[in-house]
Amino acid sequence: MSEVRAVGAAVDPDGDPDERRLAWVYLSRVVQGPCAPLSALIASVGVCEAARAVRERELPTALRGPTAARREMDSAAADVDAIERLGGRVITPDDDEWPSWRMLGLDQLDTERDREAAVPLVLWARGPLSLHTASERAVAVVGSRCSSGYGLQVASEIACDLAGRGWTIVSGAAFGIDAAAHRAALAVGGATVAVLACGVDRPYPAQHDRLLAAIADSGLVVSEYPPGISAQKHQFLARNRLIATLGDGVLVVEAGLRSGARNTVKWARRLGRPAMAVPGPVGSASSAGCHRMIRDGEAVLVTRADDVVDEAGPLRLPVTDGNPAEPGADLRGAEAEIYAALPVIGSRLPRELSQQSGLDLATVRAVLPSLELAQLVGCDSDGWFRTSRRQAS
């Protein structure tokens, strides 16, 4: 990548904050969505140098096409003014509000396998909630747009119960299950986050302008797309990864066999997040996707908020009757399988853990940071190891 001025040079994290913010915003407008090659360039040379390279066309081949159409369009200052006039803001990776630990999973995924897997450059937001705080304890609730009365009732009851317990409800503000989940959270004064596939100044669907306004009043409406961008089909698939990323798990309430909710579950599984599905009547086409996911082991069957909390709740190390539980005894799903694959003594590399656990490498890489946050595992030059054994020795 010799065409870029200082590839591999140390990045100055203490550059002018305003200059960095405008650089982030400029690049967000240029690529409009996830762009793994640009993220890699920023990681190598810093955001300001990456913005300069895009403007001056000193780019590797992989970035010439994605930046060609809009590299001359430097409307960063106008975009910042536009979002501020809406009462909103732009959140960059430099900001305290950026949910860094949530993005760890995305950062571990193979972007050659899914180009949408890249971490968003920035997030545009409207609403009083801090995204960092709101996503600390959150569940994504998604499902069919053509929902039945049964689905709407179940989604509302579970979302209402979760929101009442302090969980943030994350969804996509679509018709059907999404809207029911948002409204249930609002009804009990709970926190809810709507993730859009268009600019936050463009209500989508248009019929949900009042719902989105209500969410922006007390919760948060976010998007990785700059103001003024209309919703396009491919943007919904990219949006789904953010819905999965911002939650501790994904709950599907009604989904057809070809439902977009199954795409969100795919992202959850790749990120190492639990996927859950509510069963419906056996003959219901609206629940056929849920039944398939449950049957194929892609999602755990749940019927109430308690089940969701059991699956998506924080990692716990319970102690009963004065006898400490074995470390990792409370783990479930991918976390349990990866922890079990670690030896009692010694270390393992992610690829070895993938082979031993039977999970794909992307899932292993996404789950290991969450186990590290729970202080169950650590990492050194030899690989990953169980911290409890190291501490005891």
TrEMBL record:
InterPro entries: DprA, DrpA_SLOG. SUPFAM superfamilies: MCP/YpsA-like. One of its GO terms (biological process) is DNA-mediated transformation. Residues 90-311 form the Smf/DprA SLOG domain. Belongs to the DprA/Smf family. PANTHER family: PROTEIN SMF (PTHR43022). This is DNA processing protein.
